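Practice problem 4.
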C-alpha cells in the first residue's frame, strides 16, 4: 500500500510536475521568468514562475551538496592538542616497560615527545618539534649510578 503510493508518485506525479516547471532553455532566459507578488499571483492562475522553480532548485542544490560533500575538507581535529600523532594508535593506551636490570648501557634516552621514529628510544625529534611549536619538551634520560 505504501509502496503503491511511492510508485505512483515517482511514475505519475514527478513527471507531471517536471513537465509543468518553467525551466528556461538558456541562462539568459532566467531573467525573463515572472516575479510577481503573492497578491498578484492570487489573481492570476497558478504561482509565479520563480516560486514554482524553488522546490526543484532546492532539491538540485541538496543533491549537488551531497555529491560534493565527500570531497570537502573534513572538520579539522585539534591536532595541536594531541601529543601522540602516530605511535600505536590502535591501542587504548601506549605503555612501554623496560627493566632497569636490562639496561646494559650507562645511559638510556627515551622519547617523551612522541615524534621519534625509533620510539620509545629518543632520536632527538623533539628539537624540530620545539622549533616549530615553541614547546620545551625533552627526553627522559636514565643513567646508572657510578659506583
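Answer key:
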Amino acid at each position: 500500500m505504501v509502496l503503491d503510493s511511492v510508485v505512483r508518485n515517482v511514475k505519475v506525479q514527478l513527471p507531471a510536475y517536471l513537465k509543468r516547471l518553467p525551466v528556461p532553455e538558456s541562462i539568459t532566459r532566467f531573467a525573463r521568468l515572472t516575479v510577481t507578488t503573492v497578491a498578484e499571483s492570487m489573481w492570476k492562475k497558478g504561482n509565479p514562475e520563480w516560486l514554482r522553480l524553488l522546490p526543484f532548485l532546492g532539491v538540485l542544490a541538496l543533491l549537488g551538496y551531497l555529491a560534493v560533500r565527500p570531497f570537502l575538507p573534513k572538520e579539522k581535529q585539534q591536532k595541536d592538542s594531541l601529543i601522540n600523532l602516530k605511535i600505536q594508535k590502535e591501542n587504548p593506551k601506549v605503555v612501554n616497560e623496560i627493566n632497569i636490570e636490562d639496561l646494559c648501557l650507562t645511559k638510556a634516552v627515551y622519547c617523551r615527545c612522541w615524534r621519534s621514529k625509533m620510539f620509545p628510544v629518543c632520536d632527538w625529534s623533539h628539537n624540530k618539534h620545539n622549533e616549530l611549536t615553541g614547546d620545551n619538551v625533552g627526553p627522559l634520560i636514565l643513567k646508572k649510578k657510578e659506583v
